[in-house]
Design goal:
The complex is a heterodimer. By secondary structure, chain A is mainly beta. Helices cover 0% and strands 53% of the residues of chain A. Chain A contains no helices and eleven strands. In chain A, strand 5 and strand 6 form a beta hairpin. By secondary structure, chain B is an all-beta fold. In chain B, the strands form three sheets. In chain B, strands 2, 5, 6, 10, 11 and 12 form a six-stranded mixed beta sheet that branches. A four-stranded antiparallel beta sheet of chain B has the order 3-9-8-7, with no helix packed on it. Classes of the chains: A mainly beta, B mainly beta.
């Protein structure tokens, strides 16, 4: 996990509330990704960014938003439009080659 | 459509025995294939990858994987399993469209019995 930090480790959301998950990296990697992990479903791509100030929707972007204002940071906001947000959220970076590196994850729970 | 399949939800193996975790894929063009391991409540750790070259790829912690183009498979193997290998294993493939998107399998839980 070294070089990629995700905070908080656990996050609780009340109904109707927007919450933001932090992802910071000091690996100097250009590309960053957000995945959602649910039991038995593997990882599903929410958003990804190949470069600063640019990002693309993944397969399950509805109810989520991101920004990429700095190379080091790629925060994910879970909006109130996401009706089933309970999951384990993983941030990843990619170096110039093919390999992705993952952060330790944030578990989001709904109160 | 491009996809990755891990046909076994769980694999049980005795400590010291060889282990195999299966993965098959479907992509257009040349596949870029990966194996990751996940311990409880942790992120994924990279084990190994196949991009090109030798069909037998060696990775971290004594793991290896064999790329078989005719069978579209990329099975993960280890000659002698350890109890500490017990974890969740994911196979992934990079989409060949140039978008740098990755497709993950649903994961296989490996349980090594002492």
């Amino acid at each position: 996990d070294g070089g990629i930090t995700q905070s908080p480790k656990y996050l609780f959301r009340k109904e109707g509330q927007n919450v933001t998950l932090s992802c910071e990296q000091n690996l100097n990697h250009d590309a960053m990704y957000w995945y959602r992990q649910d039991p038995g479903q593997g990882l599903r791509l929410i958003y990804y960014s190949q470069i600063v100030n640019d990002f693309q929707k993944g397969d399950i972007a509805e109810g989520y938003s991101v920004s990429r204002e700095k190379k080091e940071s790629f925060p994910l906001t879970v909006t109130s439009a996401q009706k089933n947000p309970t999951a384990f959220y993983l941030c990843a970076t990619r170096q110039a080659g093919e390999t992705q590196y993952f952060g330790p994850g944030t578990r989001l729970l709904v109160l | 459509a491009q996809s990755v399949a891990q046909p076994e939800d769980q694999v049980n193996v005795a400590e010291g025995n060889p282990l195999t975790v299966k993965c098959t894929y479907s992509v257009s063009g040349n596949p870029y294939l990966f194996w990751y391991v996940q311990y409880p409540n942790r992120g994924l750790q990279f084990l190994l990858k196949y991009i090109t070259g030798d069909n037998l790829v060696k990775g971290s912690y004594g793991f290896e994987a064999e790329f078989n183009k005719s069978q579209t498979s990329f099975h993960l193997k280890k000659p002698s399993a350890l109890v500490s290998d017990s974890a969740l294993y994911f196979c992934a493939v990079r989409e060949s469209s140039g978008t740098y998107k990755y497709i993950f399998g649903t994961g296989t839980r490996l349980k090594v019995l002492a």
